[in-house]
Hints:
By secondary structure, the chain is of the alpha+beta class. It has helices spanning 2-19, 36-47, and strands spanning 50-58, 64-72, 75-80, 86-89, 98-109, 112-123, 126-135, 141-148, 157-163. The longest helix is centred in the first third of the chain and has 18 residues, at 2-19. It is globular, with a radius of gyration of 16 Å. The two termini are 15 Å apart.
Amino acid sequence: MKKIMASAPRIKTILAALSSLLTLVPPATAAADECAPIRALAERLDAVDKGHVIQKLIFPNGNTSAEEFIIIGTKQYWRREKGPWSVGPREPFPMSKISNCKYSGEEPAGTTLAYVYEYDRRFPYGMARVRIWIAKDTGLPIKSRFKEMKPTAASFERSFTFSFADDIRQPI
């Protein structure tokens, strides 16, 4: 139980980061809120029954660290690197503090054609520029990358890869 409680703030941070990774639609008209498709993603992700996310942290010295998340129904599982799994209740994806949203076009992401968006997201430590690829066929994120706008010696980039398959299973 202590392990779950100790990891809760980190999980909330990750979920907050992921909340900005939304199910997106093609670009809206110029008169519409350019961030509306991104804000809508939180609701879509909350409706997903199964998801698998790998977060990779990339430090200025070239070192990396990875965290893995599995969401199934009302539970979420997480671990750092290949460490032991922790489990807790699934938390909703909170709304993000986002601005300067821009539709950047379509690109392949692996074998899938994706809509690409960029936006700024405020974190407790500062601002990050986010680039996200959203599958045209499912409207769910495939990958994203967060880069701090004013990097420091303690800064790091984050990259996320996502999958939403029926065969995702509980790890423990």
